[in-house]
Design goal:
By secondary structure, the protein is mainly α. It contains 16 helices and no strands. The longest helix is centred in the first third of the chain and has 18 residues.
């Protein structure tokens, strides 16, 4: 079970209520109906936003980033001339082209798109978070940190911003900074789980054990708490216990792909090689 199944379930009620809603229909054709011909009415359209939208999403789904960049450029040209066919279309396309450029290694051009998106929607967190990631990727860590600090100071969404900023720092191995940002959040299972990941990376394993245990105490039904425990146990080479923790995370959130991948990582370790992994 993966994200495609989750996406299909999310789109189905929308398409039942609004079967002619073009963005959802085209997104489905590009991502969920790969290998099939697009709906005839979409394929037969003349010049408009639908064709480049479909081509961009098809290229994105296939990780053809250069083609995606070109298709999003065509889409943005049309939007500039005719306006948004649905609310937020220009912002969405600008962010998507930035992401395609990022994945294509065109970081300077990605920065241009993310900066433009931040101007289009100054209250949104996502453009600045993506902008900071791109600066990190370029090696401009201080610029990334400054942009994230400015974002936090400007937004009213303090908790959401602090957690997202912590994730960016952790993804670029700035785990001390990630912990600092997490300390701004109230104590919850999610916060303690997030702390566990960074503490493990910093090899502060005693504190990681305390955070993992506290996460589960605060909310035994939080899948992330069990995933964080599994992450700690995997680092400690306690593969059987890690597999059990990841299995619990899967039971609590069977839609999350990372839980399956993590359990697979624990089952692929030497203890299980040649054994009966299915019996866990």
């Amino acid at each position: 079970m993966g994200r495609a199944d989750e996406a299909a379930r999310t789109l189905s009620p929308l398409l039942e209520r609004k079967p002619a809603f073009e963005p959802a229909r085209i997104w489905k054709a590009a991502h969920l109906d790969k290998g099939k011909k697009p709906p005839a009415d979409i394929a037969a359209r003349g010049p408009g936003w639908e064709e480049p939208y479909l081509l961009a999403h098809q290229a994105q789904a296939d990780a053809r980033w250069g083609d995606a960049v070109e298709a999003y450029a065509r889409l943005l040209k049309w939007l500039l001339a005719h306006g948004d066919p649905y609310l937020g279309a220009t912002l969405e396309a600008t962010l998507a082209r930035g992401s395609a450029r990022f994945n294509a290694g065109k970081l300077d051009e990605a920065i241009e798109d993310f900066a433009a998106a931040a101007t289009l929607e100054p209250k949104s967190l996502e453009p600045v978070l993506l902008l900071a990631r791109t600066h990190y990727k370029k090696g401009n860590a201080e610029v990334a940190k400054r942009r994230l600090q400015d974002l936090y100071e400007a937004t009213l969404l303090k908790e959401e911003a602090a957690r997202a900023i912590a994730t960016v720092h952790r993804d670029f191995k700035e785990n001390d900074l990630a912990l600092e940002w997490l300390s701004r959040l109230p104590e919850t299972s999610t916060r303690e789980a997030e702390r566990t990941y960074s503490l493990v990376k910093l090899k502060q394993l005693d504190d990681a054990r305390k955070s993992a245990a506290r996460a589960i105490d605060l909310d035994p039904a939080d899948y992330l708490a069990h995933h964080a425990l599994g992450f700690l146990l995997l680092d400690e080479k306690k593969y059987e216990e890690a597999a059990a923790a990841f299995r619990k995370a899967i039971e609590l959130n069977p839609e999350n792909v990372d839980c399956y991948l993590s359990r697979g990582a624990s089952l692929s370790r030497p203890k299980y090689q040649g054994g009966d992994a299915g019996g866990e």
